[in-house]
Amino acid sequence: MKKIETAAIFHISSRSQGRRKRDERTKKIVLANGVLSEAEGRRERSSFIHHLSEQSGHLLSFILRKKCIPLLIGVVITGAAIFAYAGYEPVSLGELINSPAKYDREIVSFQAEVIGEPLFTESGTWFNVTSGSYHIGVFLEDERFLDKIEYWGSYAEDGDILRVKGIFYKNCPLHYQLGVHLIDLEISQRGQKRKHLVSPKKEIFAWLSLIICLTMALIYLIKRQWKKKSKI
What we know:
By secondary structure, the chain is an alpha+beta fold. It has two domains: 1-86, no CATH class; 93-193, CATH 2.40.50.140. 53% of the residues lie in helices and 23% in strands. It has helices at 2-65, 69-85, 93-98, 100-103, 200-231, and strands spanning 106-120, 125-131, 134-140, 157-158, 161-169, 179-189, 192-193. The strands form two sheets. A five-stranded mixed β-barrel has the order 1-2-3-6-5. A two-stranded antiparallel sheet has the order 4-7. Strand 2 and strand 3 form a beta hairpin. The longest helix has 64 residues, at 2-65. The radius of gyration is 42 Å and the shape is elongated. Mean pLDDT is 75; it is low at 1-13, 26-38 and 81-87.
């Protein structure tokens, strides 16, 4: 009886040992596959980066060989402009003025028409912009930005539409008023001279008034001349 129990225990322990060995082999295979797949991923990434660098080098050599320097400069300028305005969602001027606490001391970007004339002070220059029924003053220290503006909104002309980027202040610590301190300025749309057309009715009225005035003046001169002759 004891021999049978001992044989059964030995059989069970040998089965458990065999199961453990199979588990260990399985783990080694899984780890090996993981290492191999990770190594393959690194090789693929390295191959892709190498291919990308080669293509970039070919493109650059093509640009230089074909003397496409203006194209390269244009690409660089475009990329710089995108980077400069990246991260700043444009807002409306009305939203800035209606929610000043929300944007106080934040960098904002908005579009508006430039109006009036620049106001030069010792600390810098102010100019006004408008959008709909909303107006705001923009302060700048570098007057070279003003060279970009060609049309200033007035009765005679529509002002340039500007894309303004600057720091919005609900109550500026320097000027104690609501305003924007300019960081950058771009022309979104050029203004133009206004054409003030006169309605046909007004033209007819003006011509009739002129004819009546000339007729009355002629009658007056004729009467005056007739009186002089009658006295003689």
